[in-house]
Design a protein that fits this description.
Blueprint: H1 2-7, H2 12-46, H3 49-98, H4 101-107, H5 109-133, H6 136-151, H7 153-200, H8 202-207, H9 211-237, H10 239-264, H11 269-310, H12 323-331, E1 341-348, E2 358-365, E3 370-375, H13 381-386, E4 396-401, E5 404-405, H14 411-417, E6 418-421, E7 430-431, H15 432-436, H16 445-454, H17 458-462, E8 471-472, H18 481-494, E9 499-503, H19 511-523, E10 529-533, H20 537-540, E11 545-550, E12 553-558, H21 560-566, H22 568-578
Parallel strand pairs: 3-10, 3-11, 6-9, 9-10
Antiparallel strand pairs: 1-2, 1-4, 4-5, 7-8, 11-12
Helix pairs in contact: 2-3, 2-6, 2-11, 3-5, 5-7, 5-11, 6-7, 6-11, 7-9, 7-10, 7-11, 10-11, 16-18, 21-22
């Protein structure tokens, strides 16, 4: 509820006008049976044609005026609801963007996507209905009861009995369905997660012929969702028939009581019709109120799920030191002995994992050095380099950049001074230019072409229509794997980072292109510190130093020649690719 009120702060006027106008509309509706009563009791009973026509014109006027008020109220309600939904969506997206990789990993993409889409839409619909009906429906229900007592006390006792019964049915069903809607949304989370996973890994699924298995897994979760929806739907479906039974019994009681009093002369025929009209109004409004309660139950469940994400506190707190200033100071010769990157007995454990992914890692990388990182699958290569831009925080030891703890640097300076090219090449829909501007949104064409040349991407970019303005489809699906990798490398180079991390980013390139890429990057580096993560020994053997990882531990640090002599793990990797050292 708190997040809804916060989102509606900018729409207070609309949130006040919408229910007030609907209340005015309800007040006009309450006058209609009174006018009908007089029209029948006086105009028709006495045959007064002028009285009938004037009252009929009054009814038409009230109808037209009520329509205008209703349209205006709907406009304000929709404006407030859509505006609140927009604020909620924007705030949630901004909050998720501030979360660390650990928090996002814990919730999963599917859950967060559902909260950004379905949950906010449900909450928005609930706000709309609430503003339109939360004053109107109760006002008409109790207003009709008051008007009925003014017409005839004895006949109106039926209202006093019917309204509590109707309220018990509505609120009882609401209490039962609210937690069940939360379960429905959780199941929808899992459905979204399965769809997201299958769409992103569709080639893998097809390559291994697992389409039928994935369809069965989806169908099982879908059946579970259907079962939950049927269960909550059956309970919610009781609302209308139960309320209709109660109201129709009340109408029958009114007609029965009214008929006796009409025969006795204590009640006029128009009064009976007015009482029936008031009971009918109560029926209509209570049906609306029932639907409102169902939607509110769902909306509140969704709002709680949104608030759950909003209440996640980012585990990382960034300092205010500029990494650019620290690195430039060292480049100007203030302290040439300070390493660009230093790991001191660093350990890393993901979430609630029972084991450590990295254990006791210590090394130094000086400005301008190239550091190679190699190891088997799952040895912790990507985990190690992810600590440098602070995607994750070390759970033990200390990571320093240019002599300062990495946690002292501001988020902006850290992420702009550390260029990362991840294992999976990710491009965004737009143009080549817009993708390169992720590295530096103020980069000119000359800087972009330099980066493309270094990344060995200039040739195929020049062949495309529009060149830098050539279209990039979602996920870069109109580029090959090697082209996407080279464009992501160019994107990192455009920002001219002080530290460049190439995390197995040339796996789709042939050996010649890979070699040309590494040579070009080294030539344009200057004082840039480069980390090359690879499973190919030829990609790292030219590095100033190579870190060999095995099961999260650094089992060797040195040059290619030193490791070939002293490190069995490195030698085994080399020989698995090139044969024995003697043969090579």
């Amino acid at each position: 509820m708190k997040i809804i009120l916060q989102s509606m702060r900018g729409y207070r006027r609309d949130s006040i006008l919408a229910p007030l106008l609907k209340m005015l509309e309800a007040l006009l509706d309450l006058f209609v049976p009174f006018i009908m009563k007089d029209l029948i009791n006086v105009g028709i009973a006495q045959g007064d044609r002028h009285y009938v026509l004037t009252h009929a014109a009054l009814l038409v006027g009230i109808g037209v005026f009520s329509l205008l008020i209703s349209i205006t109220a709907q406009y304000f309600a929709a404006r407030a609801a859509v505006g609140a939904g927009t604020v909620m969506r924007r705030n949630l997206f901004a909050h998720i963007s501030r979360l660390g990789a650990g928090e996002v990993d814990r919730y999963g993409n599917g859950h967060l996507i559902t909260r950004m889409t379905s949950d906010i839409n449900q909450t928005q619909n609930g706000i709309n209905l609430f503003l339109r009906l939360f004053l109107r429906s109760p006002f008409i229900v109790f207003g009709s009861a008051v008007c009925a007592f003014r017409i005839n006390f004895r006949a109106a006792l039926v209202f006093a009995a019917a309204i509590p019964l109707l309220a018990a049915v509505i609120f009882g069903i609401m209490k039962l369905t609210k937690p069940m809607y939360g379960l429905v949304q959780n199941s929808l989370d899992r459905i979204t997660g399965i769809v997201h996973e299958n769409l992103t890994g569709v080639r893998v699924v097809r390559a291994f012929g697992r389409s039928d298995d994935e369809v069965r897994a989806f169908s099982a979760e879908d059946d579970r969702l259907v079962t939950l929806q049927k269960k909550v739907g059956r309970i919610s479906a009781l609302m209308n028939p139960l309320t209709l039974v109660i109201v129709n019994l009340a109408v029958a009681a009114i007609l029965s009581t009214g008929a006796v009093q009409v025969n006795a002369g204590t009640l006029a025929m128009g009064d009976v019709i007015a009482l029936v009209n008031y009971m009918t109004q109560i029926l209509v409004e209570l049906v609306k109120l029932a639907n409102l309660m169902i939607q509110i139950s769902r909306s509140l469940a969704c709002a709680e799920r949104i608030e759950e994400v909003m209440n996640i506190k980012p585990a990382m707190e960034f300092g205010k030191v500029s990494l650019w200033e620290a690195s430039r100071g060292l480049a100007d010769g203030e302290n040439e002995a300070v390493p660009a990157v230093e790991f001191e007995n660093v350990c890393l454990r993901y979430g609630d994992s029972s084991g450590e992914s990295l254990t006791g890692i210590s090394f130094r990388a000086m400005p301008g050095e190239t550091i190679g990182i190699i190891g088997g699958t799952g040895s912790g290569k990507s985990s190690l380099v992810s600590l440098i831009p602070r995607f994750y925080d070390a759970t033990g030891g200390c990571v320093r950049l240019y002599g300062r703890d990495v946690r002292e640097y501001s988020r902006v300076s850290l992420r702009s001074a550390v260029g990362v090219v991840s294992q999976k090449a990710r491009l965004f829909s737009g143009t080549i230019r817009s993708n390169l501007q992720f590295g530096d949104d103020e980069a000119d064409d000359a800087a972009m072409w330099r980066a493309l040349e270094a990344a060995q991407a200039a040739e195929f970019v020049k062949e495309r229509e529009g060149q830098l303005d050539a279209a990039v489809e979602q996920g870069g699906r109109n580029f090959s794997g090697g082209q996407k990798q080279r464009l992501t490398i160019a994107r990192a180079l455009v920002g001219d980072p002080e530290i460049l991390i190439l995390d197995d980013s040339a796996s789709a390139l042939d050996y010649a292109t890979d070699a040309a890429l590494r040579k070009a990057v080294r030539e344009m580096s200057g004082s840039r510190t480069i980390f090359i993560v690879s499973q190919r020994t030829n990609s790292v053997m030219g590095a100033d130093r190579i870190i060999v990882l095995d099961d999260g531990e650094a089992v060797g640090i040195g040059t290619h020649a030193e490791l070939m002599e002293k490190c069995e793990v490195y030698r085994a990797i080399y020989e698995s690719q090139y044969g024995s050292a003697e043969e090579a």
